[in-house]
Structures are given as C-alpha cells and as structure tokens.
Amino acid sequence: MTKRNWFFSLEVFPPKVDSPLRTIYKALNELKEINPDFISVTYGAGGSLVNNKTAEISSLLKNVYKIESLAHLTCISSKKEDIDKITEKLSSEGIKNILALRGDDNGIQRNDFNYASDLNEYIKNKDKFNIISACYPEGHIENRDLDLEIENMKRKINNGTTSFISQLFFDNDIYYKFLDKARSSGINVPIQARIMPVINKKQIERITTLCGATIPPKLSKILNRYEHNKEALRDAGIAYAVDQIIDLISTGVDGIHLYTMNNPYVANKINDSIKLVLKAINNEYKNY
Ligand code: FAD
C-alpha cells in the first residue's frame, strides 16, 4: 500500500467457524467490482489459528482476486509463538499489511501481549510487514480521555505504525475535532475514516454500546422512524453514509474505510453514489 496516500477501502469479516469459506465467495465476487484500494479482513479476538479464516481470505483476495489485502490481527490472548505462526502464514501467502490490534478485553486470559503497541513492536522486528493501527475519534471505550488516545497513537507510531484506521463514527464534527487534535499533537501519518452504513437498529445499538460511538439526533430520528421497515431503513442508512463520506472527502480526510458487513448490495449502492467524487479525488492525488 505504498502507491499513494489516499485510500478507499472495504472491510469484510470471515464466515463463522462452522461455515465453509465458500459462503463468502459471492460477497467477494461482487465487492471486487468496486475496485477498492484494498480489502481488510477482520480477526476474531481469542480465535484460534486453526479456526481463523482471516489469513485464508486475505490470501484469496491477494492471490486470486488480485486485490491488496489487509489482515486484522488481535493479540489479547496470544503467545509469541501464535503470532509467529500466523505471521509466517501471512508472509508465505505474500500478505504485507497487518492491522495490529489488541482485541476487546472480555475477561480473556492474557498471554504475551498487553496492548496493541506490544504487538506492533513484535511484528516490526520481523521486518516483513506494513503495520496499520486502530485509533479512536471519541476515545477508547475503556478510557475516553483523548489525550491518552493521542499518547497511545504516538506509542503505536514509535512501534512501527505507518497509518491508522479509525473506529466507526456517525458525527463528522467529532471526527474533525479529533483530527485537529492529532495533527496539532504532531501525528502526521495518514488516518482513514471508518464508516459503517446503518441498516439495522438493534445491530447498531449493540455495536455502539460495545465501541461507544455517539448516535447523533439526525441518525437517531432515522432509526426510530424506520426501525420496522427494513428496506426504508436500509435506504436511509445508505443515504446517511453517503452524506458522511461526501462531507469527509470534501473536507480533505486521508481516506475512507467502508465496513461492508459482507453486504455487497449496500456497498455497491454507496460506491455508485460516490464514484465520481472518488474519481475526482484520485485524479487530484495522481497529480501530486
Ligand atoms: P490498544 O491500543 O492496546 O488500546 C486498548 C486500551 O488500552 C485503550 O483504552 C488504550 O488507551 C489502553 N492502552 C494502550 N496502551 C497502553 C499502555 N501502554 N498503558 C496503559 N493503557 C494503554 N477487534 C477484533 O477482535 N477483531 C478485529 O478484526 C477488529 N478490527 C478492528 C478494526 C478497527 C479499525 C478498529 C478501530 C477496531 C477493531 N477491533 C477489532 C476492535 C479492537 O480490538 C478494540 O477496540 C480493542 O478494545 C482495542 O484494540 P486496540 O488495538 O486499539 O488496543
């Protein structure tokens, strides 16, 4: 991911442990038509290497679909030898990009890593990977203090992070304040904005409870009004995400990372609505 500094990327999750890999093929076939700069693949916190399909899907994307892939990797329950095994597998498949994460602390037994920055340092010493990290525009759920978040971002950069992908957010003004703070604190690496289209009220309430993202009044009205009308909520959620993305691109953010929920219909609708805006921004960056 070194060709330039502006990215439009997608995020998918692997099928459940007891579902075969092929259950994601249809989604990937349709998502690849969007021609994103890369697709990231999530990783189950505490998931065992044997059951984890992140490496397989990242390899499929890279080697079969010929799309750059970014493998998420959590460390909360890992021993160094687990990380050795998975990074050797990723490297043997030609995967160069890792999103180095701690994983949520659900009382999972810790092993050799306390924080994501420890994982960064360990992977950095392997000298084989481009390390990307998570950042939190509203602070992390365990600690909402943005000063501590900025300190943690700096720690991650010192330990090898070359760019960030943010936690999802629904209020662009919160994101802009966070960006201002990061930049004025001397953080100059690219930060991509993670956008999640809202298509289900219960799902979004569960996710925001876990990650602490604020639901602004405008989105709350949409959720309440269309919660029992699946299609209407989906259309309104797509429109809300498009509105957020256009505003972010026009304001000059470093990139958009779209959480697809493995739903190509939604991702394609969003892509169709922003195609020419993406083309314009890509042309701008080409001319730098
Ligand atoms: P850390 O950076 O380690 O931070 C965790 C907490 O510890 C924070 O409160 C931080 O302030 C604090 N902290 C960090 N370092 C120190 C220190 N030295 N001293 C004291 N406190 C410290 N989860 C998954 O399970 N799978 C995924 O695929 C996945 N993908 C994600 C993708 C993105 C873009 C994002 C934003 C999150 C993702 N998550 C995923 C969720 C993530 O694992 C959780 O948010 C997790 O709780 C924190 O991960 P982290 O890497 O940011 O941790």
From TrEMBL:
Any one GO molecular-function label of the UniProt entry: methylenetetrahydrofolate reductase (NADH) activity
Record GO cellular component, one term: cytosol
CDD domains in the cross-refs: MTHFR
Keyword Transport appears in the UniProt entry: no
Keyword presence, Flavoprotein: yes
Listed cofactors: FAD
Domain of life per record: Bacteria
Family: Belongs to the methylenetetrahydrofolate reductase family.
This protein's name: Methylenetetrahydrofolate reductase
Organism of derivation: Clostridium fallax
